[in-house]
């Protein structure tokens, strides 16, 4: 069972049962989507519309939230404002309406780039190491194989905060604190258990005969692995990569404890976007929306592999 | 969990069957060399970033070390840290908060998730699309989502209170979801349920799909009522999957940090102070590194112990 939609058969529920089921499920889905929709809409509201009571379902859309997310601004006197040349950008024009001028870019984009570099870096490393280890575990007689596999799985059971203490000390000694490399290695070590277990499941399903045939044709073991097994395992590798990516993209506990500036990712950054007088909700909403979009796209693309991924392949037919 | 027939046996029985070693003329690297070449990098990384720190944590747990004073002399205090943790009422309070949080979230998510899976399994038109939409919350970042829920929970301006007020008729500001002692734990349960019910649903759906149709066909022939079919076929056969979902959610909920840290930070008072929050406070605010290392080890052993007992029960259900 890899897809969500498998062909069922003879015992088909009655049309009435189906209609009731559809109503309840669609109702639940719509309720579930309300907070997400609200985040999206808040990103386009003005700060006053965002905190209006009763909550405004329809509001004049403004780019202010996104401008406040991407720029820092300074308040100026009316005399200063009057002498300014015409606004150069959309955000500058929006800011001037509030007696402010754009002072420079905000930290959101560097944090977003950190998220991208760390997520993709650790994913690439997890998948490469995981593929090699999974192949070895799937095909070769490895001493203590089950113990090693179990050990790999058990590394996921420690609460992140508990691991963070010694990692913090170790990284401080090694100069890896607040570096992208440190975070890549850390996320790889967390993701590798998932990668090995998932990929081993996929590799086990590739018939050994393929490699045997290739070796009869004169390939070495390594050539057979690269030219025969890897292409067969592509789907599994892609699914695994997406799961590693989602984890590394969303991770917060390690990021907030082990990074403070240069290597900070977006999740610890978004909650601390402060405007005048408290949290700037449209800017937070804009930052959240941009941060969620890649994951929403992935979810839709990978829906057929979801099940396999979240259960470590424990659930399958 | 050291039990080899435990989770690993459950997760992948195929792994236990090793192929016969076929005598084969070796070309290039030997199989043994390739196996080690392929496994060693992973093992080295795990040793460096998981095992070495774990051993370090154990070592520190017997000392009075403070990470913000690395040059102070480190004294061996024996079991004093463990003793003071196990007799500290705050620690027991945090464990109680965690246990209650785990219990209620899992109970609600399991009932809701199973019901949804059971309805989706009726295969109404477009069920695939709606299933995908339901899955969205669990793919998002708990921290970012938790942060945004603080906005939805704002007593005066939040959407959540607006809806509750519209339904109950009471003024919106009378529900201080994150500030009222009785409501704050539920505020977290609600967000956790919103986020993770899809996960339980997905595993339950796999369980329901794994039930062969011929069993239902036989039941039809025997004229078993739908009610009877549900209790005698559907539920027992999906039970191992439901239990698996409970196991995975239980481990995750026990470790929970992100969402609580952003929604309430443990407050009001310490009503939502789960174990991870206490641990963070001890380790990174009070800098009692030795003490918090001992706490970390206790938590780790607790998760391992409970998971191990649970997996034994799960295997008994599976082999029935």
TrEMBL record, chain A:
<comment type="similarity">
    <text>Belongs to the binding-protein-dependent transport system permease family.</text>
</comment>
<feature type="transmembrane region" description="Helical">
    <location>
        <begin position="181"/>
        <end position="199"/>
    </location>
</feature>
<dbReference type="Pfam" id="PF00528">
    <property type="entry name" value="BPD_transp_1"/>
</dbReference>
<dbReference type="InterPro" id="IPR000515">
    <property type="entry name" value="MetI-like"/>
</dbReference>
<feature type="transmembrane region" description="Helical">
    <location>
        <begin position="224"/>
        <end position="247"/>
    </location>
</feature>
<feature type="transmembrane region" description="Helical">
    <location>
        <begin position="254"/>
        <end position="275"/>
    </location>
</feature>
<dbReference type="InterPro" id="IPR050901">
    <property type="entry name" value="BP-dep_ABC_trans_perm"/>
</dbReference>
<protein>
    <submittedName>
        <fullName>Carbohydrate ABC transporter permease</fullName>
    </submittedName>
</protein>
<keyword id="KW-0472">Membrane</keyword>
<keyword id="KW-0812">Transmembrane</keyword>
<feature type="transmembrane region" description="Helical">
    <location>
        <begin position="149"/>
        <end position="169"/>
    </location>
</feature>
<feature type="transmembrane region" description="Helical">
    <location>
        <begin position="20"/>
        <end position="40"/>
    </location>
</feature>
<feature type="transmembrane region" description="Helical">
    <location>
        <begin position="116"/>
        <end position="137"/>
    </location>
</feature>
<keyword id="KW-1003">Cell membrane</keyword>
<keyword id="KW-1133">Transmembrane helix</keyword>
<keyword id="KW-0813">Transport</keyword>
<feature type="transmembrane region" description="Helical">
    <location>
        <begin position="281"/>
        <end position="302"/>
    </location>
</feature>
<feature type="domain" description="ABC transmembrane type-1">
    <location>
        <begin position="112"/>
        <end position="302"/>
    </location>
</feature>
<dbReference type="InterPro" id="IPR035906">
    <property type="entry name" value="MetI-like_sf"/>
</dbReference>
TrEMBL record, chain B:
<dbReference type="InterPro" id="IPR000515">
    <property type="entry name" value="MetI-like"/>
</dbReference>
<feature type="transmembrane region" description="Helical">
    <location>
        <begin position="228"/>
        <end position="248"/>
    </location>
</feature>
<feature type="transmembrane region" description="Helical">
    <location>
        <begin position="132"/>
        <end position="153"/>
    </location>
</feature>
<feature type="transmembrane region" description="Helical">
    <location>
        <begin position="101"/>
        <end position="120"/>
    </location>
</feature>
<keyword id="KW-0812">Transmembrane</keyword>
<keyword id="KW-1133">Transmembrane helix</keyword>
<feature type="transmembrane region" description="Helical">
    <location>
        <begin position="291"/>
        <end position="311"/>
    </location>
</feature>
<feature type="domain" description="ABC transmembrane type-1">
    <location>
        <begin position="95"/>
        <end position="310"/>
    </location>
</feature>
<dbReference type="InterPro" id="IPR035906">
    <property type="entry name" value="MetI-like_sf"/>
</dbReference>
<keyword id="KW-0472">Membrane</keyword>
<feature type="transmembrane region" description="Helical">
    <location>
        <begin position="34"/>
        <end position="56"/>
    </location>
</feature>
<dbReference type="InterPro" id="IPR052730">
    <property type="entry name" value="Sugar_ABC_transporter"/>
</dbReference>
<feature type="transmembrane region" description="Helical">
    <location>
        <begin position="159"/>
        <end position="179"/>
    </location>
</feature>
<comment type="similarity">
    <text>Belongs to the binding-protein-dependent transport system permease family.</text>
</comment>
<protein>
    <submittedName>
        <fullName>Sugar ABC transporter permease</fullName>
    </submittedName>
</protein>
<feature type="transmembrane region" description="Helical">
    <location>
        <begin position="186"/>
        <end position="208"/>
    </location>
</feature>
<dbReference type="InterPro" id="IPR035277">
    <property type="entry name" value="MalF_N"/>
</dbReference>
<dbReference type="Pfam" id="PF00528">
    <property type="entry name" value="BPD_transp_1"/>
</dbReference>
<keyword id="KW-0813">Transport</keyword>
């Amino acid at each position: 069972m890899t897809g969500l939609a498998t062909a069922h058969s003879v015992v088909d529920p009655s049309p009435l049962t189906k209609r009731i089921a559809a109503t309840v499920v669609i109702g639940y889905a719509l309720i579930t989507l309300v907070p997400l929709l609200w985040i999206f809409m808040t990103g386009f509201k003005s700060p006053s519309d965002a905190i209006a009571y009763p909550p405004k379902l329809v509001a004049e859309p403004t780019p202010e939230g996104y401008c406040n997310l991407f720029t820092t601004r300074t308040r100026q006197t009316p005399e200063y404002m009057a002498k300014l040349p015409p606004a150069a950008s959309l955000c500058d024009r929006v800011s001037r309406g509030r007696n402010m001028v754009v002072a420079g870019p905000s930290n959101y984009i560097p944090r977003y780039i950190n998220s991208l570099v760390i997520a993709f870096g650790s994913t690439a490393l997890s998948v490469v190491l995981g593929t090699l280890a999974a192949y070895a575990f799937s095909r070769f007689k490895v001493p203590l194989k089950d113990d090693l596999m179990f050990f790999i799985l058990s590394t996921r059971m420690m609460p992140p905060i508990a691991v963070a203490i010694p990692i913090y000390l170790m990284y401080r000694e090694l100069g890896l604190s607040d570096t992208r490399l440190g975070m890549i290695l850390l996320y790889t070590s967390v993701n590798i258990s998932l990668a090995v277990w998932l990929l081993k499941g996929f590799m086990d399903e590739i018939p050994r005969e393929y490699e045997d045939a290739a070796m009869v044709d004169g390939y070495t073991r390594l050539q057979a692995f690269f030219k025969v097994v890897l292409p067969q395992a592509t789907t599994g590798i892609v699914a695994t990569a997406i799961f590693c990516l989602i984890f590394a993209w969303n991770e917060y506990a390690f990021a907030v404890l082990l990074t403070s500036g240069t290597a900070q990712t977006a999740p610890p950054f978004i909650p601390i976007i402060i405007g005048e007088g408290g949290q700037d909700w449209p800017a937070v909403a804009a930052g959240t929306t941009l941060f969620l979009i890649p994951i929403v796209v992935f979810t839709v693309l990978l829906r057929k592999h979801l099940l396999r991924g979240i259960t470590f392949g424990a659930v399958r037919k | 969990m050291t039990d080899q027939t435990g989770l690993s046996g459950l997760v992948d029985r195929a792994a236990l069957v090793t192929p016969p070693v076929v005598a084969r003329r070796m070309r290039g690297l030997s199989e043994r060399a390739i196996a080690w070449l392929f496994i060693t990098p992973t093992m080295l990384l795990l040793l460096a970033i998981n095992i070495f720190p774990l051993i370090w944590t154990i070592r520190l747990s017997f000392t009075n070390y403070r990470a913000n004073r690395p040059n102070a002399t480190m004294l061996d205090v024996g079991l004093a840290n463990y003793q003071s943790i196990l007799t500290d009422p705050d620690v027991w309070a945090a464990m109680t908060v965690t246990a209650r949080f785990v219990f209620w979230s899992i109970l609600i998510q399991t009932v809701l998730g199973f019901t949804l899976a059971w309805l989706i399994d009726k295969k109404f038109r477009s069920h695939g699309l709606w299933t995908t939409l339901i899955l969205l919350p669990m793919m998002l970042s708990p921290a970012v989502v938790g942060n945004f829920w603080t906005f939805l929970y704002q007593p005066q301006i939040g959407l959540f209170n607006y809806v509750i007020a519209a339904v109950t008729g009471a003024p919106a500001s009378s529900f201080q979801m994150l500030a009222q002692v009785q409501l704050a734990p539920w505020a977290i349960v609600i967000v956790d349920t919103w986020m993770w019910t899809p996960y339980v649903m997905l595993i339950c759906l796999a369980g329901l799909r794994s039930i062969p149709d011929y069993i239902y066909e036989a039941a039809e022939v025997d004229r078993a009522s739908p009610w009877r079919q549900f209790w005698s076929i559907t539920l027992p056969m999906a039970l191992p999957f439901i239990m698996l979902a409970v196991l995975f959610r239980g481990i995750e909920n026990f470790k929970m940090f992100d969402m609580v840290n952003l929604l309430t930070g443990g407050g009001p008072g310490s009503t939502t102070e789960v174990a991870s929050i206490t641990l963070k406070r001890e380790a990174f605010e009070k800098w009692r590194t030795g003490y918090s290392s001992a706490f970390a080890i206790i938590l780790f052993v607790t998760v391992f112990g409970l998971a191990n007992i649970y997996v034994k029960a799960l295997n008994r259900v599976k082999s029935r």
